[in-house]
Design brief:
Mean pLDDT: 90
Structural class: alpha/beta
Radius of gyration: 18 Å
Distance between the termini: 39 Å
Largest sheet: 4 strands, mixed
Order of helices and strands: HEEEEHEHEEEE
CATH topology of the largest domain: GMP Synthetase, Chain A, domain 3
Strand content: 25-35%
Number of domains: 2
CATH superfamily of the largest domain: Fe-S cluster assembly (FSCA)
């Protein structure tokens, strides 16, 4: 049973501090993983959609949510992972894409409706802006990124795949 009532907006505001551990400049709201907060007679249910099924960051994100809300006196809390509809890069804010670029990861440049799970034929280097780049590996440090190199500045970089 909920002892102190918080509004959905208050919980969403608290959750705006939770970052994606794989891209720590982005919050779970900015990347579009935080789908909803439900207030039930049993407590607060946080609805998340992982960027990928089996995303290794989900355990950390769930722990961060539970810890943060407990510190704020919010409870009981449960985190529910929802896989349908599947997460899409279309849910990312433009601000998130720009933060990603400044962090050194080339953001997705197309709508998932146009290029599902495919790699762009031209990926811009997040450092120098050149599109004179080559694919090194379809997978970077995580499954959601690919590894590229820039032929102008010679720097390697990751590209967040469109999906």
């Amino acid at each position: 049973m909920v002892t102190q009532q918080y509004t959905r907006d208050e919980i969403m505001d608290h959750l705006s501090a939770i970052v994606d551990p794989e891209i720590p400049v982005l919050t779970i709201q900015e990347i579009g993983m935080l789908r909803d907060v439900l207030i039930t007679e049993k407590g607060y249910e946080i609805i998340l959609t992982p960027t990928y099924t089996g995303c290794p960051a989900m355990g950390i994100i769930e722990e961060d949510i539970e810890r943060l809300l407990a510190e704020k006196g919010v409870g009981p809390v449960s985190v529910k992972l929802v896989y349908a509809p599947a997460w899409t890069t279309d849910w990312m804010t433009d601000e998130a894409k720009e933060k990603m670029r400044r962090y050194g990861i080339s953001p997705p440049e197309h709508s998932s409706c146009n290029q599902i799970f495919s790699l762009s034929s031209s990926v811009k280097c997040p450092r120098c802006g050149s599109d004179n780049t080559d694919l090194i590996s379809r997978f970077g440090a995580t499954a959601c990124k690919a590894l590229y190199k820039c032929n102008n500045c010679k720097e390697p970089f990751e590209y967040f795949k469109c999906h």
